[in-house]
Structures are given as structure tokens and as C-alpha cells.
Amino acid sequence: MSFADIASALAHQGRFFHPASGAPAIATEPGDPPPTRPMTVTADDGVELHVEIQEAPGAPLTVVFCHGYLLNSTSWDVQRTMLAGKVRVVLWDHRGHGRSGWGTPPNATIDQVGRDLFAVIRAAVPRGRLVLVGHSMGGMAILALAQSHPGMFGGRVVGVVLSSTSAGGLSSITAGLPAITAPFVHRLVPATLTRLGRHARIVDGARRSAGGATYLITWPYLYGSRVPRTVARLTTRLMASVPIQVIAEFYTELVRYDLHAVLPALGRVPVLVLVGERDLITPIAHAEALVAAIPDAELAVVADSGHLLVLERPREFGEQVRKLINQVMPPKLVPSARTRVTG
Fold it and tell me: Which of 11, 80, 150, 163 could staple 265 via S-S, CB 3.0–4.6 A?
């Protein structure tokens, strides 16, 4: 499946029947996603990052979308289509994902992904107001940026959306497993991924060919309901496109990082925390912890949805982003009472 196919599937996701509810899903805006302008940004360690810009001449702010672990920037196509012409949009692929490079040796840390985000902003949005939107690991990238550049929040950054994410403590997640087995699983998974990484070519080939079988195994952990078949296929292909070595390196980091200390810095701007009601990977308790630590942050829980909220409920996700954008949009200039109109 090409990136164009992925974009098309996502853009039309909302038009498919939703078996979980027995009712049609809300339609997305008609037509394919608007065109973007690609650019390459070099990270501070030399890794080349793929970036796309959707222009909106005269727009008062730019929205930077940061995707999740095992996804890529095409996962935002519904949301960027909803914002077309209203704001400037910047999308990018995390290192090792999509069309971005990886690096030798790899630098698979949340701190590095935060520095990558800063490099993207510096190159693609050198000036102007920013809203940052992060899903899963993308939200963690935003937290890492707040740690390294706290002055940006309340300065250039005027709003943040954190979806299906956490500030740390993921090693305690049970993902629906009995609590007694969770520690064993968290010890087993990194070792297993490392062993698989030694046979990357064979393993990655098998993952790509597994297709629907992979979805049948993983969907209860990724979604809160049965999604349309096209989205199921899209999910497995997006995830299969990420090399096993990238998965292994980042997994180790994800279960050990902790950025709770930086959360109060985000309170300088409006923050919306989104979470799926049935998220097993970053559960509601982690979203509530974010809201408790970020002054005046708002929590929105999306019913009957899981971790991949951006794909499972793309329209609802986009509406929440628009809500925050409207909140931080500069007020329109209004003529004063002493203005004299002649004609």
C-alpha cells in the first residue's frame, strides 16, 4: 500500500459503516486530503526527518501534528483535511517511522524525539503562533519539548492537545492482562523484540504478509470497538511498515521514561487531554494524571474507543482540535466606536 493509498483510506474513513454501534459513522469532509509541500529537516544528530506542510495563506497560526508509535504522518489526514484553509498545518514522521531516517547507532529516546520536534519547528515554522497536537508518542515528544524549551509554552506555543498519551509509568500497564502477569510480560517483551531484531529481514517480511491475522490479534488492544475493514487493513500496514529494530529500540524507552516533572510548565497555555474510554495502553488514569498536574487542563473522554483514537474516531478527534484552535485564535479586529466610515 502506497502513501497515497493510506491517505485516501484515512480521508474516507468516516463514510464507512461502524459495526460496533450499528449506525453509520459521521462522514468526513468530501474529497481527498489537500496537497502538501514536502521538505527534509536534519535533526541535531544528522538524521533526516520527513516533513509536510499544508499551506493556508494569511492563517494566524500553525498546527503541528505529532503522530504515535508505529504510525506515521498520514494518520492525520482526516484532521488536516478538516483544518484546510483555516490554519497552516505541519506534519512530520518520527525517526524510524514513515519516510524519516533512523540513524546508526539509533538514538531512540523521548528526549531525542523532543529535539527532533524542535528542529522541525525551527525549520518549518520559524515564526508565528503554534498549536501542538500529539497522539501517543507524539504527545510524549511535546512533553520532551516542554522540558528542553519551557519558554516556548506561553510564548510561541499557545495551545496543546495531548491524546492517548502518558508522562511515564507505562511499565505498570497491564493492557487487560491479570495484574500478576504484567511484570513478567514487561520483562519478556524487550528481550523478545531484541532477538527478533537480529533477524530483521525475515521478521519484517513475515509481519508484512501477516495482514489481517495481525489485526485479529491486536485490535482489542488498539481499538475500543470493531472498526471498518479498510481501517483495520490500514492499521496493520502502517504498523508493519515500521522495522522491528525501530520497534524494539523505542519500546525499551517507552517503558522507562518519566516526564511528570515537566507537566506544570504546560499550564501556561490551554491544554486539552483526549483519551479513549477503553484505552488499554495509556488508560484513563494516565490522562487524569496529566490533567491533575497541568493547571487548568481539560479532559475529554471519548466513549467506546481505544488507544488509536485518531483512526477510530477521526472526526470527533478533529472537532476537539478545532475547539481548542477556536479557543486560542487571535480575536478579530473590530472597528472602534470612533471609526468613521465613508463611502
Answer: 150
Angle of CA points 183, 102, 148, to nearest 5°:
75
Neighbour tally for 49: CB within 10 Å: 24
DSSP label at residue 258: B
Instruction: Indicate whether this model's pTM tops 0.85.
Output: no
Rounded distance, CA 157 to CA 22, Å? 40
Q: What separation in angstroms does the CA of 321 have from each of 100, 128, 131, 324?
A: 25, 19, 9, 5
**Per-residue pLDDT reduced to its tens digit, 179-190:** 555 555 555 555
Per-residue pLDDT reduced to its tens digit, 115-174: 999 999 999 999 999 999 999 999 999 999 999 999 999 999 999 999 999 999 887 765
Q: What angle do CA 267, 271, 274 make, to 5 degrees?
A: 140
Half-sphere exposure at residue 101, Cβ-oriented, CA atoms within 13 angstroms:
16
> Is residue 22 left, alpha or beta, with left meaning phi > 0 and alpha meaning psi from -120 to 50?
left
Beta bridge partners of 153: 157
Please answer whether residues 60 and 35 qualify as being in contact, where contact means their C-beta atoms are separated by less than 8 angstroms. Answer: no
255 pLDDT band, cuts 50/70/90, is confident
- Domain locations in the chain? 3-328
Count Cβ atoms below 10 Å from residue 121 Cβ, excluding itself: 22
212-240 b/e with 16+ CB inside 10 Å = b?
A: eebbeeebeebbbbebbeebbbbbbbbbb
Task: Identify the three-state secondary structure at position 38.
Answer: strand
Phi, psi for 39 (deg, rounded to 5): -150, 160
Closest CA to 137 of 113, 157, 158: 113
**CA-based nearest residue to 8, from 313, 225, 321, 233:** 233
Residue whose C-alpha cell reads 523484540 in the numeric block: 193
- Homologous superfamily (CATH) of 3-328 is Alpha/Beta hydrolase fold, catalytic domain (3.40.50.1820)
Distance CA(235)–CA(309), nearest Å, equals 12
Q: Cβ atoms within 10 A of the Cβ of 110, count? A: 21
